[in-house]
Amino acid sequence: MSTVNTLRGPVDSSQIGTTLMHEHLMVRNPELERNIEHPEYDEAAIFARARASLTSLHVDKGIDTFVDLTVLGLGRDIPTVLRLTEDVPLNIVVATGYYTAKDLPTYFHTHAPDGFVGRTLDGPDVLERMFVDDVVKGVPRTDGVRAGIIKIVTDEHGITPDLDRVYRAAARAQAETGVPISTHTNVSYANGRDQQKWFVDNGVDLGRTIIGHSGDSTDLGYLKELMDNGSFIGMDRFGMEFVLDDESRIDTLVKLIEQGYTERITISHDAGFFSINTPTSWRAKHTPNWHHHRISDHVLPELRKRGVTEDQITQIMVVNPVQALTGDVEATRAVAEKVLGTGRS
């Protein structure tokens, strides 16, 4: 059986279970935080709240695996995550990748492959080497914690020259390590189309990609196009109602399920316990339903009311994550037979 890298080591695909595929623990900015004190960063309180919530997710809601897509550019801090998740009974999958919507920092220009303007130092592309090493050797200063997924971005600026380099590093790392690529998109620009075109043109198997934030769209034609092309879509912002209300998100999800797309969908929240960008007080006031329990407490009950079956929910929350994370058809079939009884639904 295939395994998936987690904070505590490789986990057999049969133990992945019910999974939230696009989440965050903490989104930080170490440089800013060293120079501008954030009034809401109380580590002890954040840790206590996070541990209680994560434990409840598993014990009370049946969530087994939590995929944290916080990467460089979003303040990834795996040593702090390790401390936060001590004794938390969840599989935590961490990510490699780089989060930027347009430009890379100067460091990556001077440490660039041959042919890049501004290159001053010899050697391989540090982005590609970092992505691969994070998966194969482990994230530095973490005693060998290995990433289980790659996260990259497209937003309003499209695939800029710097983003093209990030994408190339991700594509090469995916080919070398076998872990999937999960993306950030802005549905106002239908970024999923550009991402898929780039992936196809550069030899990336769309079956190993998850087009993120697709659930911000209610355009069924666009969403079905992404899935028909072979990618999973991430309907991964339940509770983020300042972008799109949950009623619309649920309605779109139900329509896609009714039209036979259950096997290409993952769901999640894109929520976190602390973000320097959208502080806790702002979230509490403007988007109170944006938390990691929203799917369990509200979305799944609503799906059941609308006729979505338990097998369809299990397909989306258990079987699809195994396929997305491992790319192993046999492992996925074995999990499907175990949890659905008759294989793929």
TrEMBL record:
Q: Which residues carry this modification: N6-carboxylysine?
A: 151
Q: One Pfam match, by short name? A: PTE
Print the keywords alphabetically.
Hydrolase, Metal-binding
* Kinase as UniProt keyword: no
Keyword Metal-binding part of the UniProt annotation: yes
PANTHER family annotated for this entry? Answer: PHOSPHOTRIESTERASE-RELATED, PHOSPHOTRIESTERASE-RELATED PROTEIN
Question: Record's family?
Answer: Belongs to the metallo-dependent hydrolases superfamily. Phosphotriesterase family.
What is the name listed in the Swiss-Prot or TrEMBL entry for this protein?
A: Phosphotriesterase
Organism (species): Pseudonocardia abyssalis
